[in-house]
Design a protein that fits this description.
By secondary structure, the protein is an alpha/beta fold. The chain has 8 helices and 10 strands. The protein folds into 2 domains: 11-161, Alpha/beta knot, CATH 3.40.1280; 175-251, Trp Operon Repressor, Chain A (Orthogonal Bundle). Bound molecules: adenine.
Length: 257
């Protein structure tokens, strides 16, 4: 008798933060919460302050060269990173508005790996030397400034977790939606047939799957062209073969977003 292969190691997020009580937060409910409870992924929120060494447990200091605010100390954060003993194949990320933009393709890349260490910054920033010495990859969730990296980390983890095998049903495999193929999602409708005088477009109740697919594709293209010229330019730059391959999708039916 041959032994069955061991189950795959769950995707793992290790978060370094001054506010570990912010985790799992919203990730403890709904799709991500159920997957967390069932062991599809795991979360460890570690307190950076536990690595402070002075009697005041201080983690920050005034910026060299002057200026407002406080800077997270390199020695304290480096000790916290080292204490987390992260396997070398796991990405080490720092949430930061000056980082690499978090896109759906970057999310897919992170979801396909073993799961990241995520450092959440606070204060005016963190000492550059620890970013360099521990080779942290800075990641931004958008061109605005949050009061810390925690909410950005929650966004990143949520986007990854919903792509893990077994988190969404078979039909809702996370592919038929905005960004998965480079286009914004087409409009959706459900009963009632008439709402405040507005009816569902006839094509969607025609039963003609070919026409439905063509209508959805045209809607997705029109929305993308009107709202996101950047995505539209990327889409047009692709060859027609690549566009066709990625736009053949099964309908989705999730209520989880
Ligand atoms: N920390 C503060 N603002 C941020 C942003 N926009 N993205 C990632 N981390 C952040």
């Amino acid at each position: 008798m041959t032994a069955s292969p061991p189950p795959p190691a769950p995707w793992r997020a290790t978060v370094l933060t001054l506010f570990p009580e912010m985790f799992p937060g919203p990730l403890g409910v709904s799709l991500a919460g159920r997957a967390l409870a069932s062991g599809i992924w795991s979360l460890e929120a570690r307190d950076i302050r536990a690595s402070a060494t002075d009697k005041h447990r201080s983690v920050d200091d005034t910026p060299a060269g002057g200026g407002p605010g406080m800077v997270l100390r390199a020695d304290v954060l480096a000790a916290a990173i080292d204490a987390a003993t992260i396997a070398p194949e796991r990405p080490k990320l720092l949430m930061s508005p000056r980082g690499r933009p978090l896109t759906q393709s970057f999310v897919r890349e992170l979801a396909a790996g073993p799961g990241p260490l995520i450092v959440c910054g606070r204060f005016e920033g963190i000492d550059q030397r620890v970013i360099d010495a521990r080779e942290l990859v800075e990641v931004s969730i958008g061109d605005y400034v949050l009061s810390g990296g925690e909410i950005a980390a929650l966004v990143l983890i949520d986007a990854c977790v919903r792509l893990l095998p077994g988190v969404m049903g078979k039909l809702e495999s996370g592919t038929d939606e905005s960004f998965s193929d480079g286009l914004l999602e087409y409009p959706q409708y459900t009963r009632p047939q008439t709402f405040e005088g507005r009816t569902i477009p006839d094509v969607l109740t025609s039963g003609d799957h070919g026409k439905v697919a063509a209508w959805r594709r045209a809607q997705a293209e029109a929305l993308t062209e009107a709202r996101r010229p950047d995505l539209w330019a990327d889409w047009q730059a692709r060859g027609p073969r690549e566009q066709t391959r990625t736009s053949q999708k099964a309908p989705k039916s999730t209520t989880d977003g």
